[in-house]
Design goal:
By secondary structure, this protein is mainly beta. The chain has one domain: Lipoprotein localisation LolA/LolB/LppX (outer membrane lipoprotein receptor (LolB), chain A). The protein has 4 helices and 16 strands. A hairpin with a 3-residue loop joins strand 3 and strand 4.
Length: about 300
């Protein structure tokens, strides 16, 4: 979901959806969220049912796509509405909190300031905690992606899939890539789309299987649970090509923002390494224009002082 996917991706790498999240990617993204304790990340069905009930209070932003021959909306139309609900066209500023639970390592929390401008593919991340990461940051401008380290006051050119500050998030999690460019509904041998009516908790949803349209994705297969009334994504499962479940994501809370919706609370569960979970929360989200000087090395370096 490119929902300002501030964070669209995984426990293995969140993700950022900052629409995306951060994306993107972001994530995105983003915020009238009531805080959830870290223990809630591991809570069972009663917690998730309550979360989905809260999500049901979000007003419907879109009308259903026209029915197909089966009487269901076409899968491509559902994806397009998911994309439109969460895509942002303005600059985005937010505070991102990543809470990671890893087996044998306990719980770690990372906070960061996040600035993004999709018009020229730029974003800046500046860590504010923990102390070991405070002052470190990342800057993307066009195709260039740099990591900054406070202790050496040096910039290093890194790849888009570089881990962000030791978290499960990666640089490309903070980008905003339209889900309609990445995935399409899968079809059976007769050419019928894999879209069915279902429920998640007590919420009526469309459940649809997706296949990747490009090799530049983390997972070649996904399943979406999309609310029927407003086309907001509630749950996502991700699979290998052979069908092994790798990750489950829940989009627990959205906030309306200038005619779009930002996922402000997301939980990513690692299904491969059991016990690993990541919660992504966004707050202090604004869509005010960001001055060009923000997306510069000088600005990031100044933030770390």
């Amino acid at each position: 979901m490119t929902s300002l996917n501030l964070f669209r991706r995984s426990v293995a790498r969140p993700t950022l959806l900052l629409p995306a999240i951060l994306y993107g990617a972001l994530s995105a993204a983003f915020c009238a969220a009531s805080p959830l304790a870290a223990a809630a990340v591991a809570s069972a069905s009663s917690f998730l049912s309550a979360a989905f009930a809260a999500a049901a209070q979000v007003p419907a932003p879109a009308q259903a796509a026209g029915p197909s021959a089966s009487g269901l909306p076409p899968g491509a139309g559902i994806l397009a509405k998911v994309q439109r609900n969460t895509s942002m066209t303005s600059d985005v500023t937010a505070t991102v909190t990543l809470t990671q639970q890893k087996t044998g390592q306990g719980i770690k929390t990372f906070t960061m300031h996040f600035f993004r401008r999709d018009a020229d593919d730029s974003f800046l991340i500046a860590f504010t905690s923990p102390e070991s990461e405070k002052g470190n940051g990342y800057l993307r401008s066009g195709e260039n992606f740099w990591m900054y380290r406070r202790n050496t006051r040096a910039f290093q050119h890194v790849n888009r899939d570089e881990s962000i500050g030791g978290t499960d998030a990666q640089g490309d999690d903070f980008e905003d890539r339209p889900i309609t460019d990445l995935y399409a509904p899968s079809r059976d041998a007769a050419g019928r789309e894999a879209v069915v009516e279902d429920t998640l908790g007590k919420i009526p949803v469309y459940r649809m299987d997706l296949i990747a349209k490009t090799h530049d994705v983390d997972y070649p297969k996904k399943t979406y649970w999309v609310r029927r009334d407003n086309f907001l994504l509630l749950k996502e499962t991700s699979f290998t090509q052979s069908g092994t479940l790798m990750q489950t994501a829940y989009f627990l809370k959205y906030a309306p923002l200038e005619g779009r919706f930002v996922p402000v609370e997301q939980i990513f569960i690692d299904e491969f390494e059991k016990g690993n979970k990541t919660k992504v929360s966004l707050s202090d989200i604004t869509l005010k224009p960001i001055p060009p000087e923000v997306f510069t090395k000088a600005y990031l370096e100044n933030l770390s002082k």
